Amino acid sequence: MAEILVAYATKMGATEEIAEAIAARIRSAAHEVTLLDAADVSSVEPYKAVVLGSALYAARWRPEAVKFLKRNAPALARKPVWLFHSGPLGSDLSAQKAPPRVRELATRIGADQPTTFGGRLTPQTAVGFFAKKMAQGSMAGDYRDWDEIELWANHIAEQLVAAR
After folding, report:
1. CB-based contacts of 69-72 (< 8 A; 24+ apart in sequence)
2. Among 12, 63, 71, 92, which is least packed by CB within 10 angstroms?
3. Residue 118 and residue 89 in contact, taking contact as beta carbons nearer than 8 Å
4. CB-based contacts of 130: which residues, under 8 Å, 6+ apart?
5. Residue 18 in contact with residue 144, Cβ under 8 Å?
């Protein structure tokens, strides 16, 4: 079994792609990594550390990510955990506050509040009426900063190496 779990909850695939990049960076630091949709994780017990990301829509995390945190809270409290969310669009990509329940769960498990990454909304990937309408307007585009994501993943990899 891999030592690090990178789990994600996504609607249109952008958060999954961020999770893939994070997993690849942690692997490059000689760690075994499992990458899974949060809904497919039965237990976090086998892992030494966990990274969880969720898409952020209308100031809400994906339900499967919140369920993941609730279901695994006791085990997560005993290991290093990093959280991120993606979703801000447009020119204002400032850090977004996590929903109250996620902030509460992060505090309970001893994790820092989620790091914010820009999101992606394109006509090709939009799912749902409102997203499809937004993808035709000024908010459409890919606002993910891959250098920022890489730096954050590097920080995690360094902390994992230091903890060995």
Report:
1. 69/102, 69/105, 69/106, 69/109, 70/105, 72/41, 72/43, 72/44
2. 92
3. yes
4. none
5. yes
Nearest-angstrom CA–CA distance, 18 and 83: 12
Joined together, the tokens standing for residue 86 give 């993606």
Distances 60 to 87, 91, 158 between C-alpha atoms, Å: 10, 20, 30
List, in sequence order, every residue forming a beta bridge with 115; answer none if it has no partner: 84
From CA 86, how far away is CA 117, in angstroms rounded? 5
Token pair in block for residue 99: 């929903």
The reported pTM is 0.91
Specify the amino acid at residue 28.
S
Q: What is the DSSP string of 11-52?
A: SSSHHHHHHHHHHHHHHHTT--EEEEEGGG---STT-SEEEE
